[in-house]
Amino acid sequence: MGDEGRRCPVEEGASEAEEEVMPRCRRFTLKDAKAARRRVRVPASVTCDELLEGMQVEREHADVTRCSPLLSARIAAAHLRERLDYYERLGKAGL
């Protein structure tokens, strides 16, 4: 049996909408963001809270990241290197 059968932990108390979009990943913590920041190239002006916000959004890629905080941080950091306000703009757009 391959990786298809493996599931990541589901966040307790996730809403039905969150469960539909991000069915397999727990919410990341500030501790996860701090640990990832030490290993990922993040713009110096980005706080751990901002990185964490991006990591939460990138949980939607669980099929690729396998719910890894580090891989989610890499995706978030890439977006933040392109635009420091990437997640703010995403939120305003309602995406």
Give your account of this protein's structure.
The structure is a single chain. This protein has 95 residues and is an all-alpha fold. It has one domain (28-95). It has six helices and no strands. It has helices at residues 16-21, 30-37, 48-57, 62-65, 69-82, 86-92. Helix 2 packs across helix 3 and helix 2 (30-37) packs across helix 5. The longest helix has 14 residues, at 69-82. The protein is globular, with a radius of gyration of 13 Å.
Summarize the topology.
Elements: H1 16-21, H2 30-37, H3 48-57, H4 62-65, H5 69-82, H6 86-92
Give a quick precis of the structure.
The chain has 95 residues and is mainly alpha-helical.
Largest sheet: none
Global outline:
globular
Count of DSSP-assigned helices:
6
How many angstroms separate the termini?
Answer: 35 Å
User: How much beta, percentage-wise?
Assistant: under 5%
* CA radius of gyration: 13 Å
Oligomerization category of the chains in this entry: single chain
Structural classification: mainly alpha
Which percent range fits the helix content?
Answer: 40-55%
Number of strands: 0
Helices and strands, in order, run as: HHHHHH
Count up the domains: 1
